[in-house]
Amino acid sequence: MATLSRTELAELNVFSIICRKKSFRLAAVELGVSTSALSHAMRSLEERLGVKLLNRTNRSVVPTPAGVALVTELDRGFDYIKSALSTLEPYRDEPIGHLRLNIPHDALDLLIAPVMESYAQTHPKIALEVAVNNHQVDIIKEGFDAGIRYGEIIPKDMIAVPLTGSLKWVVVAAPAYLAKYGAPGSPSELKDHSCINMRLGDGAVYQWELGNDEAFCRLPVNGQYIFSETSMIIKAALAGLGLAYCLEMQIDEHLRTGELQCVMPHWSHLSAPFMMYYPSRRQLQPGLRPLIELIKARHRSPG
C-alpha cells in the first residue's frame, strides 16, 4: 500500500473542500489560508497526478469528470477517518473538536441560545459553529456535522433525534385587534380577518395547519403582511396588525401577560418535534451528544 506524505494528504483535503464549496475563495476562508496558496496546492496536485481535476472560471469552480470520480472516493475516505477519530472520545476526559450545525432561526432562539452558557462552561474544548438558514440545506454537501429542523422535513436517510415534545401551534392576536375586529370561531372565518403570513425558506407562503386527526385542515390565509422571520410576525401581532400563527412556546410570556390572546383554541395543531439530525454513516461528532442531552433536559423541565 502506497504511503501518502503530509503534503499529499493536505492537497487532497484542499481539493475536497474546494469541490464542496465550489469556490476557491470560500474554501480559503474555511481553511484560513490565501486563495493563491490553494491555487498552488491544486497545480501541484494536478501535476503530480497527471490529470486535470478542476475547471475554473471567474465565476465558478467545477470538477472535471476525473475530479468528480476522485472527490467521491475521497469524501468516503475522509468520512471513515472522522468516524475512526470519533472512537477515541470515550478515552478522553471531555469532548474536544469542532462541531458545525445548521439550524433555522426559530431553533436558534428556542433551543441553542438558552443552553449556550451552560454548554460552553461544561464543554470548553468544543469549538461550536452555528449557521442559521431557514431554507433546507444539504448538511453533508455543505460540510455540517448535524442540523436541526422540524420533524416532518428531516431527510429519510438521516438519523433523527427528537429534542422537544410535540410542538403546539396556535392562532393569536392582540387584545386591540380583537376589540376592533372580533375573534374568528372557525377556519372558515379566517377569510374575514387580516392574517400575518410567513414566507418559507423555499419561497412559498406557509399555509396554516389547524386542528388534528379528523378535524385537521391546511389552508392559505389572507393578509397585508408577510414576513420570513417569526420574530417579526410576533411583533406585528403585538402591534395589533392581525392574527398570527405561532409556536406556543415562542409566545408563552406574551400569553401570560395578556399581550396576546389565543383564538380558536380548539383548532390548535400538534406537529412533530424539533429534531437534531446527522448522517447515518457517521458516528456522533464530539460534543454533539452532550448538546442534544442539554437541550432535551431543558425541555423536559418546566420553564
TrEMBL record:
Q: Which InterPro entries match?
A: LysR-type_TF_proteobact-type (IPR058163), LysR_HTH_N (IPR000847), LysR_subst-bd (IPR005119), WH-like_DNA-bd_sf (IPR036388), WH_DNA-bd_sf (IPR036390)
Q: Which domain of life is it from?
A: Bacteria
Q: Where is the HTH lysR-type domain?
A: 7-64
Cytoplasm is among the record's keywords: no
| Keyword Coiled coil among record annotations | no
Q: Which Pfam families match?
A: HTH_1, LysR_substrate
The entry's keywords: DNA-binding, Transcription, Transcription regulation
Show the PROSITE patterns listed in the entry.
Answer: HTH_LYSR
PANTHER family (alphabetical): HTH-TYPE TRANSCRIPTIONAL REGULATOR (PTHR30537), HTH-TYPE TRANSCRIPTIONAL REGULATOR PGRR (PTHR30537:SF1)
Q: Which family does it belong to?
A: Belongs to the LysR transcriptional regulatory family.
Q: What is this protein called?
A: LysR family transcriptional regulator
